Structures are given as structure tokens and as C-alpha cells.
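Slide 14.
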Amino acid sequence: MNKFFLTLGYSGLAPKAPGTVGTLVSLPLGMLILIYFDAYTLFLATSLISIIAIKQINKYEEQMGSHDDKSIVIDELAGMWFALSVAPAMSVGLSDVTVLENGFLIQSLLSFVLFRYFDIVKPSIIGRIDREAKGGVGVMGDDIIAGFAAGITSAALWQGWLYIQTL
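Slide 15: predicted structure.
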């Protein structure tokens, strides 16, 4: 059960780019939570999953003797869901998902791209957490910060686009 959780339903066992696969699995799941519930629910669920994941990663690393195994992608879920809880951070009906004017789909996809960018490049504090923090905090921490950075950047870009439209 621990491996199922940490690999996000075994998506982390993908032979190529398991982090991207884990993020691709996380994106529609997070969008569904936003559609049927709200950003608060997504944020709280992500916080709970992150706390559980830190403990489970610590156990896994103790058993396996390795840090940040590539198959562990629950951190990608946390980062992607935190990004979605910031931007678009709104609930829409299922029929309104493809309405581009509300920004839900655009911000969701932009959050995905920006999260992958921040997670791969690891600028600033994201890279520092990745290099220096140990155990579950190190595995989860960089993705959580990358998720918030992606969400904030996505929201700022969307708001900038809306502002330009009014000029």
C-alpha cells in the first residue's frame, strides 16, 4: 500500500519521465476536485496528503536506504495540487471547463507547465531545499514550493493578460 501511495497508483514506475507522468496524473484529479468542490478542499486535501507523504517517505527511505527515488511521485501531486489551489483557485461547472474566458483551463495548463519548469530547473530556494533538506521534507519541500511558485506565476500572468485586454 505504501508503494501504491508513494508512486501515485504506480504511475511513478513509468520507464521514462516518471515525474512528468505523475504530474499528468495529478492534473485532471486536481481539476476534478476544483470542479466538484473548491480550492479550499483541494488545498486542505493536499496539505493532509503532504503530511502523510513526509512520514511515508521517511519510512521508505529508511527501508530502501536511498533518498528521493525517481518512482516516488506523490510530491508531484502535492506540487501540482498546490499550484491549482492558487491558480485557477476557482470552481467551475463541468460545462464551463472549456470556456476560455473564465481562465480555468488556461491557468490549469499554465500551472502544469510552470510547475514542471520550476520542478526541473529548481531555481532559488527550490533548489536549496532539494539539495539540503533530508528525508521526506526534502522530497516534498521543493515540489511544494515549486507548486506555489507555479500557481502564483500563473495567476499573475493571467491577471496581466486580463489587464492588457482592457487597455
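Speaker note: Residues 74 and 141 are 12 Å apart (CA to CA).
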